[in-house]
Protein 1
Amino acid sequence: YNKLSTNFAPLHLIFIIPNISEFFKIYSEITLSEPDLAEILGNSRLADSHKIRLIEKFEAENTMADNKALTLIGKMALEYTELKLSDSSISSILLKSSLKTNEKIKLFLNYSTFFDKEFITSFLNSLGGDYKHLNEKGPMPYFEKSEILINFFQLLKKEGKISKIKEKKDLIQVTTFRK
């Protein structure tokens, strides 16, 4: 693998897919980069069970920061609850990946027991827009009504981040604490 990687990059990744069992046998002897991980995870020919195993092996030894890898891992975490990720990996996915806002919120809800108020503040800032305003005192933004958002706002209320949730036809109005 290392010789192929050095001399024939990015072709070395093509050989992993049909030889994944052999790759796992030598995994501890190689250095897999995040961009290489992202390329492997993005290959539709690799079975999801192998992707989960690879993510767990990689994540156990590395801190992740690559946007593409974080996004792919986030999508896998949404689809496969058996994928076990560390708190730091989930935090990185929520704050740095390119997942859509609703995907990030769904993932946040799946792992909500791991987060404190400080992280929730960072998470709302990373979502931007009206979500970011929920960290301020006074705003009363509206959001499109969905079951995921209702659950999200109920969690924020329980955590003391917002004061009220008002459901109106197709919208949800969220009230923050007064100034």
Protein 2
Amino acid sequence: EIDLLIPKQNYKNALQILNNAGYVTSGDHLTKINGGPGIKLHTSFTHKETESLTHQIWQRSIASIAPDLPSHVSALSHEDNLIYLITLCTKQNLIESPIWMNDLHYLFQNQDFQINADWDWLIWYFAHHHLTSSAWFVFNFLNSQSGTQISKEILDQIGEPLGSMKKHLIANLANPDVWF
């Protein structure tokens, strides 16, 4: 499934464009008549988000460089993409659909992300939006299960407010062998 963030004022227009491209509405998803990935349109990043936060996400977005997309299409910033994927995997799709792990692994392999990620802001965001435990879990899971390299410095910074006992418990949960 492809999640698309659409400005509220463009929602109906985006829906019409996708309908014209062969997508039909099925609940809150759009499916292509002749197959292909499903699409879900969103007007906010999370359900708790304010218009101000949504505006900030749009300001941080990156203009698309994909040749087959219109020039006004943007992608989430690397930091917002990371937050979205952590939220998606820990609150919705952990076991149901592990595709998020591939997306996170790809993000961490992205050289621009490696060089330019604003980790101070991300760590602040995790703490102020109650995502520190989720981030700690995801990063430990990626390190142990997919070989994704996440620096010890980043793990230490994220884990610092959790304390040793909570970090130990969460790290154990990052091992699928103990899930069932």
Protein 3
Amino acid sequence: KNDLARISLVKSLTVLVENDEALSLIQDYIARNPRDVEGSYLLGIVYRGMGRDAEAENQLRRAAKMQPAHFDVQYNLGVILLRLNKAAEAEAHLRRALAINPESSEARFQLGNALRKQGKTEVAREEIAVFKQQREQTAQENSAAMTQAAGVFNEQVEDERHSDRRKLDSFTRTVSHEMR
């Protein structure tokens, strides 16, 4: 249970860019759980946040060996390999990430970058076009969801308004009846 809290804390610290503290916590965790994929993955993310790209690559590769079907591992390994100018390797990992989650527009965008860096311009354009379609679809879905949520909210407000009005009418009738 303590280890789960530690992992959760590391995730929070990396979001807050408190990398030194996160590094200490995750290294302690990995010392006790050396085969834990999440620990290796998070250590890679912490190193990436610290600009320690080679160490990030090593940890993310380690995590990918432990669990090849981990989307976040494959995606982040692809991103770090792009930063290290290893576009062909990045392409392979980003393709694996997309095989796991074909709807990931972020992975699609990074794949387009990896292809472009390799001079595969036409294929890169195709991937970026798919990325743009995914983004547009997501924007439309979000807009529809917001419109629906607003409609439900308005209905609830209207129901409460009618309920309050019925209560007020009932109260007024009761008071009027008692006054007679």
Protein 4
Amino acid sequence: DMKAELFVNNTKLSLGHRDLVEFAIILDDNDKNKDILHEMAKSKCPQIRSHIASFQGLHSKTYHMFLDDNSIDVIRSLTCHATSYSHMKRKDLDRFISIGDSEITSGILGNLYEIVEEYRICKQDWIYKKLVNVEDPAIRLELADSEETPIDILEKLIVDADVDVSEAAKRTIDRIDSL
């Protein structure tokens, strides 16, 4: 467990779990808090870790610690903002995609530019080829609804077993053809 104490004018207050959760919430995402945020990121509490993982101004070592985290909430927080991708490798994306969580996938799709162009983690086609095969129809539907999805992927989605995915892919191809 984490030992936390607050000192004010030589007066000590021991902080418990609830205090630490509240403390994590009120801390600002700035340089002066990087060290304390890193220490708090070591918490056994996923609620604290996931909140801190949503910050964009963390130490590199903190991001790397989160990349190995198994909490779905931490991974969701990590994949929702572009800054965390500067610390990722393709193997991290592969692991996150293989989880098959629609919120994680939405974060990845929402940060495609950073993943592909800015940080050059992988090619865009690699991501789409991974996502077209996930079991969750919500993820495939998100691909089928997007004009950013490559035509070859949309063509695969036209024959998807889920009727919503199939129809969305057809509509998207029709929209693209009419442009």
